[in-house]
């Protein structure tokens, strides 16, 4: 690794300075007869150094997006065009894996995350014994609880605001008041992965894309399968039969086993699928993005195989993309509010409450606070490539994505809401016990993925502006550490333990400086009641938003059953927090070895006849 040569003043780096080997490729253009004869370019040539000692420090002066655009501008001036049609003859290297950087299996930055969580959680035990501040332990405990509930209030306001936007957009579209310009220069590439999920789930997902306006003219779809997908050939043939002619391009890829640097999971699968799809589009002489003199913009969208795209998703995306200033498009990601409502009425109370909470948290925190994307989101091809597609060595593709793109542009990327509701499926199982197991396993996977992403962010944070990195880390720790992990545990543990520790402290008094022990007890009981009011708001927001669900779908849970689910909502949050706490401790003890993707079962999400529907008592 070499640093740029020192000079008297800052000198802009050209693309030749970054990669001298490109000049050699440029000189060889005259002897290229066909794409087959072209030499393979250096993988990641705008991000990595070669044996010629090209500098890797250039990103401090130029964002990766700028470098990618400069490379394509230079490359487009040297490629050859078909003599008859005038279309580009483009050749792109196939993805064959990556060289994984050496990393310690145990000494990772997620240890700091776990330390912060444990210090906060155990403060109820040791805070009364700290000199000076020990006598104010009750007041400190109440202050922490007040802050947590104020943050809940902020989330409620955000969620209600986004719900209003969903309803308003739905009404505008019903009245045909949504004026979307004819953006023929905008094209879409949608990537979805399939492993062991039922093929009918994938058919429903792709069908929700196929019914979008002008899908056959503007939308290309790639389905990424794993080499180990059961009945892979039969599934590929079925998808090609049903959707082969309903999109501008429809592609199915197979992610090979054992690629260097890849771990099993959606990250590596979607990384391979999207790279392969972009390669195929660039080599397709009939694809309009690469016509001579054309300025077509390709927008990338990713989704899950158990997702239902809302009506007019791509129209709303194009409308907001057009309104967004051009200088902001390269650091903007578009996210649709996601509701875990597919067959939700058949789920037990802990699965349904978790699904309602995740939809609420997305509109309350993830989108407005720019924490991370989730499942279905869109961005420009330039930003996607500048961020290196997705990281195949991590398991949580959507959580890590925003960090990689922010690193590419050297600033915090902005998440903008697409006012179209999309649907996803909750965890599912074939029995009540199996539902519980799948629910806990999914939470554990999310938590371990978040811990790994925090390690990745801590390693890369120095490449971001200081205040951007500081703000993102604070929001990330609050959401994944306090809100999802220890918030409810602290809310129950601290009011019980802190008064018990006070008489054992140096002062020997059970009362605080301003609050007596009895008053403290009544206030904390009031906070418990406030938690139920907050959960009532979660139920109401999801119920009101149902009118915006695609295809007229609704959560058909009866009101009497919802009432029992509301009673069990606070215990559900407590169980959720306990599973997250266990997962953080597990990744702390076992290290990198637990960071693998274990796909959740989706069999029970397939729509069944009413006579075969299984509904749990509670």
From TrEMBL:
SUPFAM superfamilies: Nucleotide-diphospho-sugar transferases. The keyword Transmembrane helix applies. Keywords: Membrane, Transmembrane, Transmembrane helix. The chain crosses the membrane at residues 111-130, 142-164, 477-497, 517-542, 563-585. It comes from the Eukaryota. InterPro entries: Nucleotide-diphossugar_trans. This is Glycosyltransferase 2-like domain-containing protein. It comes from Pristionchus mayeri.
